[in-house]
Structure to design on (275 residues):
């Protein structure tokens, strides 16, 4: 579906249209939540085929997104005005196949003036938009299950036939990109009959050698990956907000969990709910 401006929309300086079925299902933003409606966190994942805003007033953009997702939105206009943003601030955006939360993030990011970013927080069925500075005054504690990011891939040996070359995941390293934390594989290549992992030849190793090897310490490996993950988050997501860098945020490991206390903006960038 394409989003095209109509003559009426041009008069309003807004060019936006959404799937009629989606709006019909949502019932409009002015209605209160109804039983059986997906939670707001799910509605924010609504994928929009195409969205076009052309010099649209920010208030109209917010209203359009709120109507589509059937989420109540409150904008702290008084706070936004302190950083030079008001209801009539024009928004121009063309986006395809993005989730609603991504569209909202792009809009707010484009309005960042002089290092004064805007942010949003989801509290049950209310989406609050204000300055990142105001959110920075609020501290929230969340627990993240990161066991899947601590999985052991280094001990997995590739299988191959003689005379062939295969690629395999030699290790993984945590990365932070586009507001999300994940794993980036480190790819290795092995040729049968050649060397593997810096001079190791699988055909030269006898059964006794394999039997005498000490089993890897999974605890040490997981602890190392946990440290790498924590470093990636602290250095990649609002570095100045963490206590180790002079801020207020803390991040503590507990088994395969991370207990993080920081502002809603930080939790939003990590990818966790802020409600």
């Amino acid at each position: 579906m394409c989003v095209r401006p109509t003559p009426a929309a041009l008069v309003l300086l807004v060019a936006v249209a959404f799937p009629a079925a989606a709006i019909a299902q949502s019932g409009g933003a002015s209605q209160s939540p109804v039983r059986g409606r997906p939670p707001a966190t799910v509605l924010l994942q609504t994928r929009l085929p195409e969205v076009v805003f052309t010099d649209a007033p920010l208030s109209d953009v917010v209203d359009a997104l709120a109507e589509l997702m059937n989420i109540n939105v409150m904008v702290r206009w008084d706070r936004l005005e302190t950083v030079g943003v008001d209801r009539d601030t024009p928004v121009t955006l063309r986006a395809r196949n993005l989730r609603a939360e991504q569209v909202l993030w792009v809009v707010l990011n484009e309005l960042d003036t002089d290092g004064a970013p805007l942010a949003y927080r989801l509290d049950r069925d209310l989406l609050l938009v204000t300055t990142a500075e105001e959110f920075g005054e609020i501290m929230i504690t969340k627990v993240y299950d990161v066991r899947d990011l601590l999985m052991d891939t280094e001990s997995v040996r590739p299988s191959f036939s003689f005379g062939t070359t295969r690629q395999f995941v030699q290790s993984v390293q945590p990365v932070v990109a586009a507001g999300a934390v994940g794993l980036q594989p480190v790819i290795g290549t092995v040729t049968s009959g050649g060397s593997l992992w810096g001079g190791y030849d699988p055909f030269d190793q006898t059964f006794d050698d394999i039997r005498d090897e000490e089993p890897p310490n999974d605890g040490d490996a997981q602890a190392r990956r946990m440290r790498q993950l924590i470093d990636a988050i602290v250095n990649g997501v609002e570095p100045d907000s963490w206590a180790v860098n002079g801020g207020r945020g803390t991040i503590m490991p507990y088994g395969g969990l991370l207990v993080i206390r920081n502002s809603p903006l930080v939790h939003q960038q990590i990818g966790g709910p802020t409600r």
Remarks:
- The chain has two domains: 7-137, 141-189+216-270.
- Residues 1-34, 192-207 have pLDDT under 50 and may be disordered.
- Residues 218-236 form the longest helix (19 residues).
- Strands lie at 47-57, 72-75, 90-99, 118-123, 126-131, 140-145, 165-177, 180-191, 250-254, 257-262.
